[in-house]
Amino acid sequence: MELALYAPGLGYYCAPRRIFGDRGDFTTAPELGSLFARCLARQCHEVLAELGGGDILEAGAGSGAMAADLLLEIEALNGLPDNYMILELSAELSARQKETLERKAAHLLNRVRWLDDIPAPGFRGVMLANELLDAMPVQRFRIGDRGPMLLQVGWDGSGFAWREKPAPPELRARLDSLSLPEGYTSEIGPAAEAWIKGAAERLAAGVLLLIDYGFPRAEFYHPQRAGGTLMCHYRHQAHDDPLILVGLQDITAHVDFTAVAEAAAGAGLSVLGYTTQAAFVLAFAPALVAGSDPRDARRHLELTAQLKKLTLPHEMGELFKVIALGRGSPRPLSGFALVDQRARL
Q1: pTM score > 0.90 for this model?
Q2: Considering only the top CATH level, what class is 2-137+191-344?
Q3: Are the C-beta atoms of 150 and 238 separated by less than 8 Å?
Q4: Residue ranges of the domains in the chain?
Q5: Segment (H or E) for 228
Q6: How many CB atoms lie within 10 A of CB 295?
């Protein structure tokens, strides 16, 4: 999965192709318009104000749309960060992000820095990641008649094929604790958990704010989800076979937010909030929509259309979740004021 997505020049995210938006393979919240980024900007502004300043780090910035819209909104709030850092592994996407920022917020480019690794310990501010963890490599497993089996990729002479071997002791112990039935197939995300721990080690004060699709562990390994959550996206079509179109299609897996919370707690962070994307957006969006010029009917309709897409249950509102992990930030976060579901983790 890591090679299929990130191999230099060949992986899905590292080759020259358009992957976001209507002409790509899927659409993320920032690609719908500015509303999502403006809501995040309000939360970032609140955290930076409490800290007395600081930086914003966005990990995996996609097309750069969220960075541009967020910076413009936080500028309007008179709360620009000292630096806006973009952690991006793809040279192709970094170039596109620069183009987007030059087009939409050229006067703020002097605050933007591109990184190829998480900054050194001592970071103060907000770390953001929208649809990042779902694109990190997962381990896939199946519960066999003799216990958990690790699913690996082999070659059968004409194409890629699944191969099985007994799960190593550490993975076996983890899966045994879930008491899954024979035949159950799913994933765990050690890469995402390692990333959380790495980010936590760098965060001296502030908030790690993650937005992604997924569930608490009890729902992630629900009996009705016996085939797992691994999905592929190609030209706005979804299917579950990662062994075809290798390098040409996105491969994702839903996020186990309980595992995210456990990784954060193990690294010394507190879970400051956990809610649906709908509840988070609705904590900020009504004021933004109400503040639009009623004489500009087109702009007002665009905002309401974005709001529906971001919040309706059958769109992105319920499947996508927002979790805030923090250090040295005791004040309640406004994004979780309407609904906080930490008890479900």
Answers
A1: yes
A2: alpha beta
A3: no
A4: 2-137+191-344, 139-188
A5: none
A6: 7
